[in-house]
Amino acid sequence: MGGRNLAATLCSVLLGGCAGAQYLLPEITAAEIDRAALTVAGDTSSLPTFHRTGAEYGRLVDTVSNRLRLGVPALCRHAKLATCFFDVSYVADDTVNAYAAGSNEIVIYRGILRYLETEDEVAAVIAHEIGHHLARHVEEQQRNAALGGLVAAILTGGLMAGTGYQAPPNDPYAGQQVVRDAAQLGAGIGAISFSKEQEREADLLAAYLLARSGYDLRRAGHAFTVLAKMSGKTRSTIFDTHPAGPERIAAWEKAVAEVEASRDLLPKAE
Description:
The protein has a domain at 140-192. Helices cover 60% and strands 5% of the residues. The chain is built from twelve helices and three strands, in the order H-H-H-H-E-E-E-H-H-H-H-H-H-H-H. It is globular, with a radius of gyration of 21 Å. It starts with a helix and ends in a 9-residue tail after the last helix.
């Protein structure tokens, strides 16, 4: 089965069978996305950077992490999490990235911190990764990857049997390798299923966490404007792992409005 056909089939299976967002996501319109696009328009080739020493970066991450830990318990109870501790690690590397992994791990790189000016902006990035844990996205991604690998292997094996595939005489294990390659591709596709929705959900939960931790949501949101300018994308596709910048900014503005109108500072369940 060709990679394109396999990908299309897997997306149909996975997107039809896996759970979506746990919380109600604010709706955004095309007009709101177009307005948000003006925020990231223009020359984005020379974004400002803000130099700090390694010790200063480490202290900044610790300060933000400790402050967010004070605001997160109510959200953990709301999400019915058994554990409400998040281990935030700073990595002195210029990779522009931050990610959530394992049951409570968060990693943030110097590369992304160099583009964030205020504590509020740094808090937005870390709170977003905590949001992934609050919504159990890591576990969902692992389940989707396993399902994607299994479905791909079954589809490929069935196609090979149906077409009478025979391994070449000099490579009797070639068929097994084809199935393994398909399973790997399927696992990769499974891992990104619903990822844009997950990213929006993590942003929404981040907004509630930031508010509970006393951060300025509008100043914090500038972090997403910076990331949008860095990506340069104006529209996302099914295979993207993040919403395009304008979509994310428009959704963030809606999330901020929702949080500011909330009485209990808790997201609404789907």
